[in-house]
Write a structure and sequence with these properties.
Layout: E1 2-4, E2 35-37, E3 41-45, E4 51-57, E5 65-71, E6 77-82, E7 96-101, E8 112-122, E9 134-135, E10 144-150, E11 171-174, E12 179-183, E13 192-197, E14 204-211, E15 221-233, E16 238-247, E17 254-263, E18 268-280, E19 287-295, E20 301-312
Parallel strand pairs: 2-9, 3-10
Antiparallel strand pairs: 1-17, 2-4, 4-7, 5-8, 6-7, 8-10, 11-14, 12-13, 13-20, 14-19, 15-18, 15-20, 16-17, 16-19
Length: 314
């Protein structure tokens, strides 16, 4: 079982420097005719967290400019927040906000992607069809937005550790010892588990996965759970997990909310058991990161399987 720790300083699961998503800037409206897009990639979560991008014209058009949107895979959709299209010679200075979202499709797809392509039509030749110049987006014409979509059923990539760590979004941190995804007959889901060895020296060791580019709101509640088992796990050291919500700061990411939960179950030989920790956002945030591991554990072998990260938006 887990016990919520009163202070994050009660455990030395030291966090490495995090790279957080930056907010979309106000788009410049000077220079040659062009259509500016604020983001080349965004992240959405089925049925809950959507993403917003800005679209603006760099110069006053000679005629109305209409935008059209298409998706490569039909996984996502886009809506106009404010103001409405088209751009006109009178309102061209007003940036348009697009909301990109994905509905819950009930299919277990893991982390998957779609691509939004933006096209323009106008009686102004500079903003019509293939003559229109785009900036800020992805693709060869800079008019695409790559959309990373997270399943509503589980936000994590490779939650059962079936892939080599180098091919997944998991990050392993260790001061000593070994660890990785290994085929194991005791796996709860699939055929592999994450195994981590201890060391005879004082060690810090954890696994982490970060989801960035989020349009997170105060009140969002995350619940992180996983299964843990062990052989000969020593009585020393601290075993714990952490959920961290951040947003961009001046020099480094700013902590919004953090929850640290310590394991207080049996040591020695540990049969599979599910551990759970949760956090509620106290303010808006742009990234969530989960950690699980230990500090100062000097003997034993620990296995992990079936990680789960859920989001409830009120």
């Amino acid at each position: 079982m887990f016990r919520r720790l009163l202070s994050s300083s009660a455990i030395a699961l030291v966090l490495l420097t995090l790279v957080a998503a930056t907010a979309a800037p106000t788009l410049a409206q000077t220079g040659d005719p062009a259509i500016a897009i604020s983001d080349a990639s965004v992240t959405v979560i089925e049925g809950s967290i959507a993403a917003e991008i800005l679209v603006a014209l760099a110069t006053q058009p000679e005629a109305d400019v209409a935008l059209s949107f298409s998706f490569a895979n039909g996984e996502a959709n886009v809506t106009m927040v404010s103001p409405s299209l088209p751009f006109t010679p009178a309102n061209w200075t007003e940036e348009r906000t697009l909301t990109i979202s994905a509905t819950v499709d009930g299919t277990d797809e893991g982390v998957h992607t779609d691509t939004l392509t933006i096209s323009a039509t106008s009686d102004d030749p500079a903003y019509n069809g293939t003559a229109a110049v785009f900036t800020g987006g992805a693709g060869s014409s800079n008019n695409e937005v790559t959309i990373q979509i997270r399943d509503a059923a589980n936000l994590l990539d490779d939650p059962s550790f079936e892939l080599p760590v180098s091919q997944s979004e998991w990050r392993l941190v260790a001061q000593a010892g070994l660890g990785g995804s290994f085929s194991h007959p005791a796996a709860l889901d699939g055929s592999s588990v994450l195994l981590r060895t201890t060391s005879s020296i004082e060690t810090l060791k954890y696994a982490a996965q970060r989801i960035g580019n989020l349009n997170g709101l105060a009140g969002d509640e995350f619940t992180f759970s996983y299964s843990i088992a062990g052989l000969g796990v020593g009585e020393d050291g601290v075993i714990a997990t952490r959920i961290l919500l951040t947003r961009p700061g001046i020099d480094e990411p700013e902590e919004v909310t953090v929850s640290t939960c310590g394991y207080v179950g049996p040591r020695g030989d540990i049969n599979w058991q599910t551990l759970t920790c949760s956090v509620t956002a106290t303010d808006d945030y742009t990234a969530v990161e989960v950690f699980f591991g230990w500090q100062g554990l000097t003997s034993g072998l620990v296995g992990y399987d079936v990680a789960q990260l859920d989001l409830v938006r009120p």
